[in-house]
Design brief:
Shape: globular
Helix content: 25-40%
Strand order of the largest sheet: 3-2-4-5-7-6
Distance between the termini: 63 Å
Largest sheet: 6 strands, parallel
Number of strands: 20
């Protein structure tokens, strides 16, 4: 029997489990399956022949597959669907699955499982997939019968997007995918999750009671998830408040060209506290925005600074810092309801709020001018300085092309130099496990309707998942890969220098942190996967090389050699 008969299943037509799965995916609006097939996925691959409108995106390694689905889901603002191969494939993908979990990316993750009729004999590739996946997902379950597929798949799609969004996992035994079923798949449910928070009048009075210029807004990743950039800007303008981004963001969910945008917070608690110490209160939109990396003495939030928060995830409210009032609700819908209350309460002091906003805008311009002057001081360096590379790349890319960033050595400078009215331009490695960026850019291009995307990757990060180059070439996607090559783990060396009692910091010797002897030939690597490439060693060549790459129809790679420590 073929995978899908083409007959209306309401009459009880028998078809294989793999065909049932694809029927559900089509009804849920799935366009792409991201995967790397093995023996246990053969029923699904065979069934795809009769479903030409569901496109299988082949990744050459499961870590890349997961990141592609992640990039797609973030860009398309809908769940990504992926299919991995048994215990080994799921294991390969776990690093990027943890990234997706931290980033709260909605993913429906499946993996082929061995035929359950011979698992008692410990067959090759068999493993407890549910237990392997469980630490990285919201929930995990194995499908026992083909008749269960519609309910469990729809549950997976619903739960992946429910707050807090994130990956869910289904194990698909091979015999279930081959089992004949007459199950009716039903229709997708429509669920409106744009709940308006309670307590908004009290929140409006609390925010309006803070003196003009003494409140800061933190636009967390949830602002992007709820598409609330315009509402955040309106609230910020009403209160004359500066808007900061998360210290370690998944997105910059606010227009970087907006006069109230003050950039992302630093990643050290003491540095965050130094900034927030200038305010009496913060209004945090979304959770987990004060992420720190290395320990420093003291909290990120000064005791004198009150926390007001809005999030769709109740677990994030009051999680680390005491709050006099925080509310649960969809950020966009809740801000739309909050704004009229604020406008009434702030009308009396409108001139003071406007003046506060003008001071923020002036300080922002001064800060950006100082950063540009500091960068210009390095333009004549013998080897391209990271800040100069960041400036030239941002200038060449412009404000209208999506950027997926995993070049840690230049990311702070890139974010500093961005100047775009598009609040969805920039995405970053929130989870921290390297190997996400290049394949995420491939997925992002698909999620944006095969539009141009620029992938920024450090040389260390690029070596985790260079297989993404092949998929970009195979799919003919206009992804421009930019590798910032300093031949070292620069960030790790910088962290070690901050620890003055480390021997490495005193002697300037850092074991296992240099990617040399031999050096990586990124030109050959790109060409071997069908991607044309260019190597840049002079500042003057960065913009022309990027402009040429951006003008091509398909993928390309530009390697920029930047200074080491």
């Amino acid at each position: 029997m073929s995978g899908i008969t083409g007959v209306d299943t309401a009459g009880g037509q028998l078809r294989r489990g793999a065909a049932v799965l694809l029927e559900v995916l089509r009804s849920e609006g799935v366009d792409y399956i991201f995967g790397n097939p093995g023996t246990t996925e053969l029923p699904l691959i065979d069934a795809l022949l009769e479903v030409p409108d569901v496109h299988y995106v082949l990744g050459l390694q499961e870590a890349s597959v997961v990141a592609m689905a992640d990039g797609y889901a973030q860009a398309a603002r809908r769940p990504g669907f992926l299919n991995l191969h048994t215990a080994g494939g799921l294991g390969h993908g776990l690093g990027n699955l943890l990234n997706a979990s931290v980033s709260q990316t909605p993913l429906v993750v499946t993996a082929g499982q061995q035929d359950s009729r011979h698992t008692i004999a410990d067959p090759l590739l068999f493993g407890d997939l549910v237990q392997i996946a469980r630490p990285a997902v919201k929930w995990a379950q194995e499908v026992a019968h083909a008749d269960q597929l519609p309910v469990l798949l729809r549950r997976a799609f619903h739960d992946s997007t429910a707050a807090p969004a994130g990956p869910v996992f289904l194990s698909l035994p091979m015999d279930v995918m081959e089992e004949l079923s007459a199950v009716d798949i039903g229709a997708p449910s429509q669920i409106n999750r744009q709940a308006v928070a309670g307590g908004l009048p009290e929140l409006a009075h609390a925010l309006a009671g803070i003196a003009p210029g003494r409140l800061a807004i933190i636009a967390g990743d949830e602002v992007y998830g709820s598409d609330a950039a315009a509402e955040v800007a309106a609230v910020a303008q009403c209160l004359g408040a500066p808007v900061y981004g998360s210290s370690w963001p998944s997105r910059i969910p606010f227009a970087t060209a907006h006069p109230l945008w003050c950039g992302n917070l630093p990643t050290q608690a003491t540095a965050i506290a130094q900034i927030l110490g200038a305010y009496d209160a913060i209004f945090a939109l979304g959770g987990k925005s004060l992420i720190t990396i290395l320990y420093t003495e003291g909290p990120a939030l000064p005791p004198s600074c009150a926390v007001y928060q809005m999030s769709s995830d109740v677990r994030d409210l009051g999680r680390t810092f005491w709050t006099p009032l925080s509310v649960v609700g969809d950020v966009r819908a809740s801000l739309q309801a909050l704004l009229p209350e604020l406008q009434v309460l702030t009308r009396v002091r409108a001139a003071a709020y406007h003046a506060a906003g003008e001071r923020v805008a002036a300080q922002r311009m001064q800060h950006k001018a100082q950063a540009k002057m500091a960068m210009l001081a390095h333009r004549s360096d013998a080897v391209i300085h990271p800040s100069v590379a960041a400036w030239e790349v941002v200038r060449a890319v412009g404000p209208d092309i999506a950027i997926v960033d995993e070049a840690i050595a230049t990311s702070s400078d890139v974010r500093l130099f961005l100047e775009s009215a598009w609040s969805a331009q920039y995405s970053f490695l929130r989870g921290g496990a390297l190997g996400w960026g290049m394949p995420a850019a491939v997925g992002a291009s698909l999620g944006l309707g095969r539009e141009r995307v620029v992938s920024l990757a450090g040389d260390g990060a690029a070596l985790y998942s260079p297989q993404a180059l092949w998929t970009a070439a195979h799919e003919k996607l206009p992804v421009t890969f930019v590798v910032m090559n300093n031949q070292e783990y620069n960030v790790l060396k910088n962290f070690m220098r901050q620890q003055k009692d480390y021997i490495s910091a005193r002697e300037g010797t850092y074991p296992a942190m240099d990617i040399v002897n031999p050096s990586i030939d990124y030109q050959a690597l790109a060409r071997s996967m069908g991607v044309p490439s260019t190597r840049v060693t002079r500042v003057a060549d960065i913009a022309p090389a990027l402009e040429a790459a951006l003008a091509t129809d398909g993928p390309s790679l530009v390697e920029i050699v930047i200074a080491a420590s």
